[in-house]
């Protein structure tokens, strides 16, 4: 029997709406409709696929404000963030709408004939989305998957289904044929697991926790199902003494407290060269205290609440076990509020230094020299992103190459730009999203040799 999930506004802890969760039968039916829609979508002319994706982009653009409003209410995101996120869906659709007409193969010189390669779509792609960035993470999967000729079933997180449901409706409004892009709200243990076990789903694109990602990869092995996994992180922000310390300190809070720290790319470990440590910490304190933690419906809010009471309890547990150096402020309840918090760490074995908190908490530690900084940065099972602040170009290059992470930035904190590849080293994931090659991750290469005879 279909169950429902009550979506809660994290800023007020009030119920927003009940959403029906698909059961196994409904999940199977959606997957089967996507499988039926696949041959016609695969065979749709490239220019027509491109046109439909551009129409989808235009309809999203017309609804940016509704999508913002939904995300502010459902996820507690600030207006600024929600506007960027809806705009990112539009821009990602625009970027990949060019892909159907440019899905180029090779013509390879061989003896006795000609040889050509094709990037063939896989079939139905299952996309499983977490609650922290419901709109962009959905689009990073569905836009290139659709552009490459696949049909898509997408499961939003239980906590944050509203914008994904709306995007599913907008796709139909834009004229995408029925079954090409289907959003199925459901539980991870039911709908998500079924994406892994249903033989018609040929690839699972998962973003979420490392624990669930490992389980999905193990389950996918049974059918040799393709996976892309975007998982957790514990990224380092490395500040050398020769850096512009004022810039490094001013930008450090947003690099970890954006989205209340519920960001897999959060620079949640700050490493500072010992000779600059005291000055950096003294510059960091006012920057942290200046972060405006306000109800996200207030347009000047820079940080909203945590997503749920459960996430609040988890973050509090980490902070209670550590020693707080200083913290910003946050509204008193109701809602799942937590202030931006700084911990001074001296032990690389400490839990707060090793585990992903997924909340507005950062740990700061001094280092002695370049080699020590790299050793500390890499002393983690994760490898998603990171930043390096220095004025020395050679050092910036050496350290960028030495840090084991997929998305690094020098003298800035950018991680995700849709033009460039994004994904993790080590236990932060497998595969890459975004960038020019993303559609290839939703295809298999076919090689055809045609004899001269
Ligand atoms: P989660 O792993 O609990 O859930 C993610 C999604 O997986 C949800 O839609 C959930 O319903 C589904 N799911 C849960 N159990 C499942 C199962 N057994 N089979 C299939 N699907 C299942 O993670 P979360 O708590 O929603 O998100 C937070 C985590 O996501 C953090 O660890 C964070 O680092 C990570 N994350 C990573 C990235 C990245 O790009 N690397 C981006 C965002 C979040």
Give a description of the structure.
This protein is of the alpha/beta class and 453 residues long. The chain folds into 2 domains: 254 residues, Aldehyde Dehydrogenase, Chain A, domain 1, CATH 3.40.605.10; 182 residues, Aldehyde Dehydrogenase, Chain A, domain 2 (3-Layer(aba) Sandwich). The protein has 14 helices and 18 strands. The protein has a 7-stranded mixed beta sheet with strand order 12-13-14-11-10-15-16, sandwiched between helices. A 6-stranded mixed beta sheet has the order 7-6-5-8-9-17, sandwiched between helices. A 3-stranded antiparallel beta sheet has the order 3-4-18, with no helix packed on it. Helix 6 links the parallel strand 6 and strand 7. Helix 2 runs antiparallel to helix 4 and helix 9 packs across helix 10. The longest helix has 20 residues. The relative contact order is 0.14. The model has no long low-confidence stretch (mean pLDDT 97).
Strand order of the largest sheet: 12-13-14-11-10-15-16
Number of continuous helical runs: 14
Backbone CA Rg? 23 Å
What structural class do helix, strand and pairing data support?
alpha/beta
What molecules are bound to this protein? nicotinamide-adenine-dinucleotide
Name of the level-1 CATH class of the largest domain? Alpha Beta
Q: What is the 3D shape?
A: globular
Q: How is the biggest beta sheet arranged? A: 7 strands, mixed
Portion in helices:
25-40%
The residue-averaged pLDDT reads: 97
What are the segments in which pLDDT stays under 50 over at least 5 consecutive residues? Answer: none
- Give the beta-strand count: 18
Q: What percent strand?
A: 15-25%
Any idea what the CATH architecture of the largest domain is? 3-Layer(aba) Sandwich
Total domain modules: 2
The CATH topology annotation of the largest domain reads as: Aldehyde Dehydrogenase, Chain A, domain 1
